[in-house]
Design brief:
- Its main location: endoplasmic reticulum.
- It is found in: Endoplasmic reticulum.
- Its cofactor is Zn(2+).
- Strand 28, helix 29 and strand 29 form a beta-alpha-beta unit.
- It is built from 40 helices and 38 strands.
- With about 1150 residues, the chain is of the alpha/beta class.
- The chain has seven domains: about 280 residues, Rossmann fold (3-Layer(aba) Sandwich); about 180 residues, Aldolase class I (TIM Barrel, Alpha-Beta Barrel); about 70 residues, Ubiquitin-like (UB roll) (Roll), CATH 3.10.20; about 80 residues, MazG-like (Helix Hairpins), CATH 1.10.287; about 140 residues, Nitrogenase molybdenum iron protein domain (Rossmann fold, 3-Layer(aba) Sandwich); about 210 residues, Nitrogenase molybdenum iron protein domain (Rossmann fold), CATH 3.40.50; about 35 residues, no CATH class.
- Helix 4 packs parallel to helix 5.
């Protein structure tokens, strides 16, 4: 045991390490929004792809590279992605191969920010020139270190010094490679630099914590970049041949993986599974990774890179010896053996060579839990393609080894060679035929094995097979080898004291690390033989864990790492825990699933009566219902966050069921392991109660003649084809189907944060703020913010045709909305003497927002104003952005007069919403705000409706305009195209969907030609081009599928071009407004048919109606009760009031009944 001083400093160091390592686990995800991000190598490849992600997430971005032409092209791409005019996006041409250039580049990038160092540095610059070491000169070796290490180290050095001097809490992200963990032939001038860079990053990760600077490193695999193309041009042919199957990642995918790891705060960020395995396998497990996943990856790495010390074949032995063999690793179990192995033991089946097994017998052994089966050469040919190679080991003798073909070698993961004796020269020669395969040697000589023979084979990368009859729990003798001696034979400590660092993990807690101890050959041998945790104290000698405290350990397995100098003990810990402080681990208490399991086990024993957990344990029906409920909610979840949330709920209830039944996580893992070994698979179909019957497809509808139609002349400018993308719904998975329903939804939290300062300004400064914002956003110099009636004739001067059109639209819309109004109160006598009434009253003060922007919208003023007028609202405030001369468009002013608006507010955006919500010196406060708008307007509406001081409600969430058109072969291609374009021209974010019901390729092409031709004839063709490019054609087989997709999509506008359109209308469940038949364009509803065009978007048609007369009213209920009624109803009320313990409620009835 360590002395007290050493123990004290060890505890302090451990606590500091744990605190630092876990600190970021409790922080929010890192966001680049409004931060200055500096990206080296930012003109192409990974650097440019990362810069794009940063720009799209609201960062100020500086990119650095040598080639100015490529930088200019990159800046053009980045400018297209900016989300705010305030973003600073710049490029700088510098060479970063020396300290002076790196410092100068950083200084230049800091200038636009008054010399402040960037908040985050991303080192993506670098190059590789793979060659063989003997072909490189010294200059090439130095260049390799420069391009792989110094080019990033110089920038990091300059950046960190600036951050420390300026006290800027920053972020440094290095970019390494998979070769930072493990190198290969041909990379001798590159991999050393990446190894060194990893060491630098790991050192800085702890050092920079002192200055609140986080350091991370990304380890991508091969990337398909311009640099990779140049690398391949210089690469030796042999190296190209070795790497020809490595297809690599795209820069975009690599950048996404890098950004995701940066957000999560991972110190080592892996680009793919193979790199993750390399990281875990070389002990690159670092803070902020999922420890359970790391343990699994480490297991994969160990199983693919390490060689067992020996492989026991169970030919005899008592129970204790057999248990000891299973602790050392896999065992070879003869097919005829009757030995019973402990649950979870790893074993390979060794069949009877006199009676070779059949294919079915091999499959049966694997199904029953064998990890591998040793098969003769004759059977290996029959198993080709039937069973995974990782589950098969080929049985050979020295004479048949050369007869194995490449095809046979590819069907197995290892070879078991029967030899007369251990001849290392012979075995080395034979092994050359089986490179990449596990190699086991079974000598036929009956002489006892020795530690030296195990060591000799281990140096060859081979494993000695030892009959258990030649192993013993007793000291090694001339006839038997002690099993502990066999295990420790290949171990080689790199410590002066000869001890082995030993990681102790919890077998029953998913492999969670409990702590670090040390082992000696003596302690290892005792642990193997006794099955108890025994370690080596550097001060007190053998340390039998729990001998005095009672916190003993059962050793499940031992294994060495790939270098044979470190051990892992997998144990079941008993007592208070592993740590001497009484905690489960030396790294603090458990978390995640092990913590939940332990909590549930404790609650099973001692949960207080009436607690929810006890209810679950005692009420099987409740527990079953919760499991089914959470499983259903998990299936319905779509976003990453929702899936994680619902999965956590399901795991909680499922684990409660398991704990109640005495099932542990270890039991579940054992079951999973057993299932993974099975090679015989069931069909995997769901049970009948969980499946829905298929609806038979009706026969296709015959085509009808299409009316003649001539497109308008083509417009000028860009003549590139305008096309939608097409998907076939039948070939899409459930998750892909869900993706088709998604729109670019407003990031409400971000937008609310942006609009809040505007709202606060108006709230505190009133009209003065409105005037300032008009100058800033509308370029209008206002003296007053409100126009009051009567409105001057000159403000409403219109073209006569426009005026007549508005008058007719007003008449139609008014007529339809008057019909919606309730004619009389609802009166119901619920029982004799009890009369209940419901009646409508107008909302007294309403605000109507009429957008300006890219189109004049008097129609919106009509759609909002007329139902407000019909409902009887006493005060109608109409808000719309002013023109640059401070006036309001005459069309809107004329509508304001028609609807009887009490004020016209010359303001737009979030500031108009704020003025109506809170009121100003001249703007009346309203009780409800209506109207569509951009994301600023929508965010402002959401903000004020949640402010209890405002006491204002809104009509509905708003988003970009959208239309879904359903058409079969009877639809006129020109009509269909025109309907799609009528919404596409609203804005570049408009959503346009065509659901094609059984359309032939020719008919679909005809519609696409019409879309292209009609779009080019429009003045707003460039807006249409952008919106159509993101739009969608969904091919379905029949009307039922089309309507089902439409109901899932819940469009704002639904247009039905079907032969039985009126019949289809009966099946529509979710839509803002429906347009039925070939002569019902959506445009009519937008302007003048009579229905309202202020409709729910973004799928909100599932919950919201469009604006209507009732939107401007609220309902009040009343009741009147006679004496007779109170006699009838009073006893009921008293009984319920007493039941709820509300005596005064009951008393209000009692005093009246007493008086009757």
């Amino acid at each position: 045991m360590p002395d007290s001083d050493t123990l004290f400093y060890s505890i302090v160091a451990a606590l500091f390490t744990v605190a630092v390592s876990t600190m970021s686990l409790f922080t929010r995800k890192w966001s680049p929004k409004d931060k200055h991000c500096y990206v080296t190598g930012g003109s192409t490849g990974l650097g440019l792809s990362l810069a794009k992600i940063l720009v799209k997430n609201g960062a100020h971005v500086s990119i650095v590279a040598r080639n100015q032409e490529k930088l200019d092209q990159a800046i053009t791409e980045l400018e297209r992605l900016r989300v705010s005019p305030a973003q600073v996006i710049k490029s700088y041409s510098f060479s970063l191969t020396d300290a002076a250039g790196s410092t100068a580049a950083l200084d230049a990038a800091s200038q636009p920010f008054e010399g402040r160092v960037p908040d985050a540095l991303f080192m993506c610059a670098g190059a590789s020139r793979p060659r063989f070491f003997i072909d490189d000169d010294t200059e090439a070796l130095e260049r390799g270190m420069r391009d792989a290490y110094w080019i990033q180290a110089y920038s990091a050095h300059a950046g960190i010094k600036k951050m420390v001097r300026q006290k800027v809490p920053g972020k440094i992200v290095f970019v390494g490679s998979m070769l930072s963990y493990m190198s290969f032939m041909g990379w001798s001038n590159y991999a050393p630099g990446k190894h060194a860079l990893r060491g630098l990053a790991d050192g800085l990760a702890s050092e920079c914590q002192l200055y609140d600077i986080s350091v991370q490193m990304y380890f991508p695999c091969t990337m398909e970049t311009p640099g990779y193309e140049e690398e391949n041009r210089l690469k030796p042919d042999l190296l190209k041949k070795l790497e020809e199957t490595d297809k690599g990642m795209t820069p975009e995918a690599a950048a996404e993986a890098m950004y995701r790891g940066i957000q999560l705060g991972q110190q080592h960020i892996s680009g793919d599974l193979l790199t993750s395995i390399f990281r875990a396998g070389t002990r690159g497990i670092t803070p902020n990774h999922n420890i359970l996943v790391d343990c699994i990856l480490a297991l994969i790495a160990w199983s693919t890179m390490s060689t067992p010390a020996f492989l026991p074949i169970l030919d005899s032995g008592d129970e204790e010896l057999i248990s000891a063999t299973t602790r050392c690793g896999p065992v070879l179990l003869p097919a005829s053996s009757k030995y019973s192995l402990a649950t979870g033991s790893i074993y390979y089946v060794f069949p009877d060579t006199a009676a070779p097994p059949s294919v079915d017998q091999v499959a049966n052994w694997l199904d029953q839990g064998a990890s591998k089966v040793v098969v003769p050469l004759s059977l290996a040919k029959d198993l080709l393609g039937l069973i995974s190679p990782e589950k098969l080991v080929l049985l050979l003798d020295t004479g048949s080894a050369s007869a194995v073909t490449d095809k046979i070698r590819a069907t197995v993961s290892g070879v078991l060679l029967k030899t007369p004796a251990v001849d290392t020269d012979l075995l080395d020669s034979v092994k050359q035929f089986f490179k990449g395969l596990s190699f086991y040697v079974l000598p036929s000589a009956e002489t006892a094995p020795t530690s030296s023979s195990i060591q000799a084979l281990n140096r060859l990368g081979a494993t000695l097979v030892i009959p258990s009859s030649q192993l013993s729990l007793s000291p090694t003798s001339s006839s038997q080898l002690n099993i502990g001696d066999a295990f420790v034979a290949p171990l080689a400590s790199d410590r002066p004291d000869g001890l082995f660092p030993t990681i102790v993990t919890a077998f029953n807690l998913g492999g969670r690390s409990l702590g670090l101890v040390y082992s000696s050959k003596e302690s290892i041998t005792e642990s193997i033989c006794t099955g108890k945790g025994v370690y080596q104290s550097r001060k007190h000698g053998l340390w039998r864990k729990g001998e005095t405290s009672g916190a003993v350990q059962e050793v499940v397995s031992l294994r060495a790492d790939c270098d044979s100098d470190t051990l892992e003990f997998s144990v079941i810990q008993h007592g208070t825990g592993f740590c001497h402080l009484g905690t489960s681990t030396c790294f603090g208490e458990l978390n995640g699933l092990p913590a939940l399991e332990r909590t549930l086990q404790q609650r099973l024993q001692s949960a207080p009566q009436g607690s929810y957990t006890r209810r679950l344990f005692e009420d099987s029906k409740l527990l079953r219902a919760k499991i089914m409920e959470e499983a259903d909610e998990l299936c319905a979840a779509e976003t990453k966050e929702d899936v994680a949330f619902e999965a956590a709920d399901l795991i909680y209830f499922a684990l409660t069921k398991c704990v109640k039944a005495g099932v542990s996580l270890a039991d579940i893992e054992a079951s999973l392991d057993l299932k993974s070994k099975k090679v015989t698979r069931r069909p995997g179909n769901a049970k009948p109660q969980w499946t829905q019957p298929e609806v038979p497809k009706p026969p296709p509808t015959a085509a009808k003649p299409i009316p003649a139609y001539t497109t308008a002349p083509s417009g000028t400018g860009n003549t590139d084809s305008i096309r939608m993308r097409t998907v076939d719904l039948s070939s899409r998975s459930r998750s892909e189907h869900a993706q088709l329903l998604k729109r670019p939804v407003l990031k409400s939290d971000e937008m609310i944060a942006k609009v809040k300062p505007i709202v606060d300004e108006v709230r505190t400064r009133g009209d003065a703020a409105l005037i300032d914002f008009a100058a800033k956003f509308d370029r209008a110099q206002l003296s007053t913010t409100v126009i009051s009636p009567p409105y001057s004739p000159e403000s409403m001067e219109l073209d006569p045709d426009v005026k007549n059109a508005i008058d007719q639209a007003y008449a139609n819309i008014y007529k339809f909305h008057v019909a919606q109004a309730e004619k009389a109160p609802l009166v119901v006598e619920t029982m004799p003497g009890v009369t209940c009434t419901r009646f409508a009253r107008p909302i007294a003060r309403v605000g109507l927002y009429v957008p300006g922007g890219t189109a004049v919208l008097p129609s919106t003023a009509l759609m909002l104003g007329i139902p407000a007028q019909v409902a009887g609202c006493k005060e109608i405030v109409l808000a719309t952005p002013p023109r640059s001369d401070g006036s309001v468009v005459p069309e809107v002013m004329y509508v304001a007069k028609l609807i009887g608006a009490s004020a016209v507010l010359k303001s737009g955006g979030g500031q108009a919403v704020a003025a109506m919500a809170y009121g100003t010196e001249t703007v009346p406060k309203v009780d409800k705000i209506f109207g569509p708008g951009n994301q600023w307007v929508t965010a402002a509406k959401m903000l004020v409706q949640n402010d209890t001081d405002a006491l204002v409600s809104i009509d509905m969430p708003a988003g970009p305009s959208e239309v879904l058109v359903i058409s079969d072969m009877t639809g006129n291609p020109a009509f269909v195209a025109a309907d799609l374009l009528s919404q596409a021209e609203h804005g570049i974010d408009s959503q346009v969907v065509l659901v094609a019901v059984g359309l032939t390729d020719e008919r679909l092409a005809e519609i696409e030609r019409e879309v292209d031709a009609q779009a080019h004839a429009l003045e707003r063709v460039e807006i249409v081009r952008e919106s159509v490019r993101k739009s969608l054609i969904v091919r379905v087989a029949n009307d039922e599928e089309a309507i089902a997709f439409s109901n899932d999509y819940a469009p704002e506008h639904l247009i039905i071009h079907l032969e039985n359109a009126q019949e289809a209308l009966k099946s529509i469940e979710n839509a803002g407004s429906v347009f039925v038949g070939p002569f019902t364009p959506e445009s009519c509803g937008d302007y003048a048919s009579g229905t309202n065009h202020t409709l729910p978007t973004n799928g909100y048609a599932r919950q919201f109606s469009g604006v209507n007369t009732l939107s401007f009213q609220k309902h009040i209920t009343s009741q009147e009760i006679t004496k007779e009624g109170l006699r009838n109803l009073g006893p009921v009320v008293i009984t319920l009031a007493d039941c709820e313990g509300l005596q005064a409620h009951g008393n209000a009835v009692r005093v009246r009944l007493a008086a009757i």
